[in-house]
Design a protein that fits this description.
single chain; 339 residues; alpha/beta; six-stranded mixed β-sheet; 14 helices
C-alpha cells in the first residue's frame, strides 16, 4: 500500500517534464494559458509517475470543488420509490455533469434536521452550486443561497417570496399541456370532466389544477376536483372520492401518471370501463404509461431534458455568465387507448 509520503509530488512531475512547479500546477488545475506542447509534456509526466492531485490543495487554488449538489426535499422512501420523476431528473443531471467533468452530490431533505444540514453544507462551500427539484411550499433555501452568491437553480418556479426573481428555474408549460388534455376530452364529447390534482404545496400541483380550471372556464362544464399527492395510492383514493361525489362523471384528467394508474385500478374495481364509461388522461408519459390497462393517454413532459437544462443554467451561473430567469420547456399530448 502506498503511503502519502511515497506519492509523487508536483516537484517530481516538474523535474520529469522539465518545467517549473508553477507550470505543473497551472496544467493540473485546468489552466488554458499554458502552451499545448508543454501541457502534453506535463500530462505525460503525470501519467508516467502516477501523480494524483491533492484535491484539498486544488480546491484552495481554484476555489472550486468540481462538485454540484442536487437537493430533493423528500424522504429516501419517496425518492427511491417508483415515481419516475426522480430517476429522470437524476439521469439528466448526471449526463450533463459527466459531460462537464463535474461530480454529482445527491442530497435528500425529508426533515427539518436534514434541511438544516444541507444548508450548512452548501453555505460551507463544499459544492460549487446547488440544484433543487420536487420542492414543497415556501422553502427559503434557494433564495438564501442565491443571496450569498452560491449558484442555485430550481426545477419548477420557486414559491417562496422573492425567490423566483433571485433564482433561475427550468419548468414546463403546465397550463398549455393541461389545456390540450381537456380540449381532447371536450372534442370527444365528454360532459362531466373531473380532475385529480397534485399537492397544492408544489408548483406542478398548483399550475396543473389552474390549467384545468382555466380550460373549463367559459364552458358549461363545472370543475370537479379531488386532490392527491402524486402517488399511486392517492390516485386510487381520489378516484373513489370523485365517483362518490359525482357518479355520472365521464372523464378525468389526472395530474400525474402514477395517480392515473391508481385511478384506473379504482375504475376497474367499480366496474367502469375505460374509456367507454370514463376517459382517463395522465401527465408525465412515464415508461409504464404505455403498459397500463388500457394504455394511458397522457401529457409528455421532458423530465431528462429538465435535468440537463438545470445543469447548463447552473454552470453558466458558476462561470459568471448571464442566464435567463426562466427556461420553459414544451409538453405535448400522447394519445393512447384510455382517452
Amino acid at each position: 500500500m502506498t503511503s502519502a509520503r511515497d506519492r509523487p509530488t508536483l516537484e517530481e512531475v516538474a523535474r520529469r517534464a522539465g518545467v517549473s512547479r508553477a507550470t505543473v500546477s497551472r496544467v493540473v488545475n485546468g489552466s488554458t494559458t499554458v502552451a499545448p506542447p508543454i501541457q502534453e509534456a506535463v500530462r505525460r509526466a503525470v501519467r508516467e509517475l502516477g501523480y494524483v492531485p491533492n484535491l484539498a490543495a486544488r480546491t484552495l487554488v481554484t476555489q472550486r470543488t468540481d462538485s454540484i449538489a442536487l437537493v430533493l426535499p423528500e424522504t429516501a422512501t419517496r425518492v427511491f420509490s417508483d415515481d419516475p420523476l426522480f430517476p429522470g431528473i437524476v439521469r439528466g443531471v448526471s449526463q450533463e455533469l459527466e459531460a462537464a467533468d463535474r461530480q454529482l452530490v445527491l442530497m435528500m431533505a425529508g426533515s427539518a434536521a436534514s434541511h438544516d444540514r444541507i444548508e450548512r453544507y452548501a453555505m460551507g462551500r463544499h459544492v460549487d452550486g446547488v440544484m433543487f427539484a420536487s420542492m414543497h411550499g415556501m422553502d427559503p433555501l434557494p433564495g438564501t443561497l442565491a443571496r450569498i452568491g452560491m449558484p442555485a437553480v430550481c426545477s419548477g418556479r420557486p414559491l417562496a417570496a422573492g425567490a423566483a426573481a433571485a433564482v433561475p428555474y427550468v419548468d414546463i408549460d403546465h397550463v398549455t399541456g393541461v389545456a390540450s388534455a381537456i380540449q381532447h376530452l371536450l372534442d370527444a364529447g365528454r360532459q362531466r370532466i373531473a380532475t385529480i390534482a397534485g399537492p397544492q404545496d408544489m408548483v406542478a400541483g398548483i399550475e396543473r389544477l389552474a390549467g384545468y380550471r382555466q380550460a373549463l372556464r367559459g364552458s358549461r362544464h363545472r370543475s370537479i376536483v379531488a386532490v392527491g399527492d402524486f402517488t399511486r395510492e392517492s390516485g386510487a383514493i381520489a378516484m373513489r372520492q370523485l365517483l362518490d361525489d359525482d357518479p355520472a362523471l365521464d372523464a378525468v384528467f389526472v395530474a400525474s401518471d402514477l395517480m392515473a394508474d391508481g385511478a384506473l385500478r379504482t375504475l376497474r374495481e367499480a366496474g367502469r370501463r375505460v374509456p367507454d364509461d370514463v376517459a382517463v388522461i395522465g401527465f408525465d408519459d412515464a415508461e409504464f404509461a404505455r403498459y397500463t390497462d388500457p394504455p394511458l393517454t397522457t401529457i409528455r413532459q421532458p423530465i431528462i431534458d429538465i435535468g440537463r437544462e438545470m445543469v447548463r443554467l447552473l454552470l453558466k451561473l458558476a462561470e459568471g455568465k448571464p442566464v435567463e430567469e426562466a427556461l420553459i420547456l414544451p409538453t405535448h399530448l400522447v394519445v393512447r387507448d384510455s382517452a
